């Protein structure tokens, strides 16, 4: 199902970065998502919010990439939160229990508000 996948940085300030994921996350594109997100973390943006509103498809490779990004953020003393998750992906997160691991917010603004209330995940 491969479409182009883009991770577009919307905001980066100190330990926080907000990026939009656009396209399908599958076997071919999941490594790109993981690599680009981990690069943001390695540049000091250990708290990452991913706006998923433009994600058209996500398979198990995509879920694995999200777990890898979460591990990377945790290892850096940070966090990963998802925002505006489309229904099919939300259903996968719920069925796999990943919604208990990854905070999911209705909008990016809600994710930013939650981060502002609790900026240090440790």
Key words describing this protein structure:
Transcription Regulator spoIIAA, five-stranded mixed sheet, alpha/beta, 5 strands, 122 residues
SSE layout:
Blueprint: E1 6-13, E2 16-25, H1 30-42, E3 47-58, H2 60-75, E4 79-83, H3 87-96, H4 98-101, E5 104-105, H5 108-117
Parallel strand pairs: 2-3, 3-4, 4-5
Antiparallel strand pairs: 1-2
Helix pairs in contact: 1-2
What would your notes on this structure say?
- The protein has 122 residues and is an alpha/beta fold.
- The chain has one domain (6-117): 2-Layer Sandwich (Transcription Regulator spoIIAA).
- It contains 5 helices and 5 strands; from the N terminus they run ββαβαβααβα.
- The protein has helices spanning 30-42, 60-75, 87-96, 98-101, 108-117; strands spanning 6-13, 16-25, 47-58, 79-83, 104-105.
- It has a 5-stranded mixed beta sheet.
- Strand 1 and strand 2 form a beta hairpin.
- The longest helix is centred in the middle third of the chain and has 16 residues, at 60-75.
- It starts with 5 loop residues before the first strand and ends in a 5-residue tail after the last helix.
């Amino acid at each position: 199902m491969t479409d182009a996948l883009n991770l577009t940085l919307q905001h980066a300030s100190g330990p926080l970065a907000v990026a939009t994921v656009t396209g399908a996350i599958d076997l071919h594109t999941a490594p790109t998502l993981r690599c680009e997100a981990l690069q943001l973390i390695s540049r000091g943006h250990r708290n990452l919010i991913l706006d998923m509103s433009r994600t058209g498809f996500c398979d198990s490779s995509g879920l694995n990439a999200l777990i890898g990004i979460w591990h990377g953020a945790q290892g850096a003393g940070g966090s990963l939160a998802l925002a505006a998750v489309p229904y099919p992906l939300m259903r996968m997160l719920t069925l796999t229990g990943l919604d208990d691991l990854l905070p999911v917010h209705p909008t990016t603004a809600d994710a930013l508000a939650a981060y502002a209330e609790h900026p240090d995940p440790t």
